[in-house]
């Protein structure tokens, strides 16, 4: 199937609106993506005609909602190339997924002096849960830098392994630099040394085909709102061997089999790790979003975004007063930049907004990366499957205005 961008854009109703009297140019997909009509319709349909709590009732609607909700587990497994869907834990997003691993797998098995290897370009969601272990258990965080292009050398990550290394936690795709990390090489080397690997797939799964069984990781976290699905939806793949080692992180309904005054027995995995009423309709919406992406074809999406990346890279390189961070050759269409001089990222994004161009300004939840780059903040234009080269032109026009006003 060819990628028909006009048809794709027509699937996203919000893209027809104006902002500040200008057509919306939405380049904040790294923060959260817009939703296609099929997802919006699925949410309306679920609440209008098919809503009930799941796993609990014997009545018609509860069975229907359970069926729809549980089918999403299979969709996520298919999307991530996982052959056994019981290795998918459904949740509210990457933050919950990584915390589930930190509390349920890492905390019970780590002690003072154990080490966790992190890259310097991790999102706070893949940093702060490990700081909890540092603060509470005395675990040491070992940081691996990226090079001047923003590339992460897998050998440098593997070279940081010692006999105290208990986990490598690394992003698959940087939300700031756009760098795609060779997580397969990291996993291959780590496996030989008996070190599990957690991959933060929050950004990668949006932009490229992902097959976690080929990657060979132990944990792979995704978050629904960046995948054109509802906020409050997500999942984490947990290899069955790691799952067997895990303790439940949150306790409550659904994750138990029996509870008495003196004892509790747990449900089978993955439900053992899904406490309480889940985001039922959010997850149903996520299933539809993933089907939508797979319908377009992940290879087609990736090819379209490579075209956008190349076009944007050329046009932004033409602005000799713009400093783009991250020069990895195979990067995704994510561009973080500063303007030469003292212009603040917030001022730049405010001017862009006046032109209808939505970008993000700030630290992007990556304090250690900003420290590494020696920057207080950047602006970030992050592209998605519905963006166009005309929108790159609109960004460049708006940046030229910024340069005129702020230089
Ligand atoms: N990891 C990366 C690389 C991200 O870009 C984000 C979101 O910005 C997260 C983790 C956290 O995702 P969420 O806030 O949906 O849990």
From TrEMBL:
* UniProt GO molecular function: cysteine desulfurase activity; pyridoxal phosphate binding
The entry's function note states: Catalyzes the removal of elemental sulfur and selenium atoms from L-cysteine, L-cystine, L-selenocysteine, and L-selenocystine to produce L-alanine. Catalyzes the removal of elemental sulfur atoms from cysteine to produce alanine. Seems to participate in the biosynthesis of the nitrogenase metalloclusters by providing the inorganic sulfur required for the Fe-S core formation.
**What family does the entry list?**
Belongs to the class-V pyridoxal-phosphate-dependent aminotransferase family. Csd subfamily.
Fetch the SUPFAM superfamilies from UniProt.
PLP-dependent transferases (SSF53383)
Q: Which GO terms describe its biological process?
A: cysteine metabolic process
* Cofactor(s) listed in the protein's UniProt record: pyridoxal 5'-phosphate
Pfam families tied to this protein: Aminotran_5 (PF00266)
UniProt keyword list: Pyridoxal phosphate, Transferase
Q: Which organism is it from?
A: Salibaculum griseiflavum
Q: What is this protein called?
A: Cysteine desulfurase
Q: Where is the Aminotransferase class V domain?
A: 25-395
Name the catalysed reactions.
(sulfur carrier)-H + L-cysteine = (sulfur carrier)-SH + L-alanine
Query: Which Enzyme Commission number(s) are on file for it?
Result: 2.8.1.7
Give the enzyme's main class according to its UniProt record, as a single word. transferase
């Amino acid at each position: 199937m060819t990628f028909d961008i006009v048809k794709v854009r027509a699937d996203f109703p919000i893209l027809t609106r104006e902002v500040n009297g200008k057509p919306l140019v939405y380049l904040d997909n790294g923060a959260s993506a817009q939703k296609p009509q099929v997802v919006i319709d699925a949410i309306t349909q679920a609440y209008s005609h098919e809503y009930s709590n799941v796993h609990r009732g014997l009545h018609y609607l509860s069975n229907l909602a359970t069926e729809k909700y549980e089918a999403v587990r299979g969709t996520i497994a298919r999307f991530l190339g996982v052959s056994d869907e019981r290795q998918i834990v459904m949740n509210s997003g990457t933050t919950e997924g990584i915390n589930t691993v930190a509390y349920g797998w890492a905390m019970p098995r780590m002690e003072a002096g154990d080490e966790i290897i992190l890259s310097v370009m991790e999102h706070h969601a893949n940093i702060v849960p490990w700081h909890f272990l540092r603060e509470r258990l005395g675990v040491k965080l070992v940081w691996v830098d990226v090079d001047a292009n923003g590339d992460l050398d897998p050998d440098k990550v593997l070279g940081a392994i010692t006999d105290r290394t208990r986990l490598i936690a690394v992003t698959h795709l940087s939300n700031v630099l756009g760098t795609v990390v060779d997580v397969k090489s990291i996993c291959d080397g780590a496996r030989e040394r008996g070190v599990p690997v957690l991959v933060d797939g929050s950004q990668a799964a949006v932009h490229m085909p992902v097959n976690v069984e080929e990657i060979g990781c132990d944990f792979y976290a995704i978050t629904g709102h960046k995948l054109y699905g509802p906020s409050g939806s997500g999942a984490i793949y947990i290899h069955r061997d790691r799952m067997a080692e895990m303790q439940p992180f949150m306790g409550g309904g659904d994750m138990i089999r029996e509870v008495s005054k003196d004892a509790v027995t747990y449900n089978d995995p993955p439900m053992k790790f899904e406490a309480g009423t889940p985001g039922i309709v959010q997850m149903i919406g996520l299933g539809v979003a993933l089907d939508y992406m797979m319908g377009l074809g992940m290879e087609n999406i990736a090819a379209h975004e490579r075209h956008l990346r190349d076009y944007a890279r050329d046009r932004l390189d033409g602005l000799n007063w713009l400093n783009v961070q991250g020069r990895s050759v195979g990067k995704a269409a994510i561009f973080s930049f500063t303007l030469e001089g003292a212009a603040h990222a917030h001022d730049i994004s405010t001017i862009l907004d006046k032109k209808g161009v939505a970008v993000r300004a700030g630290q992007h939840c990556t304090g250690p990366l900003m420290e590494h780059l020696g920057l207080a903040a950047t602006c970030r234009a992050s592209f998605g499957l519905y963006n166009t080269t005309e929108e790159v032109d609109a960004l460049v026009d708006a940046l030229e205005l910024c340069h005129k006003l702020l230089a």
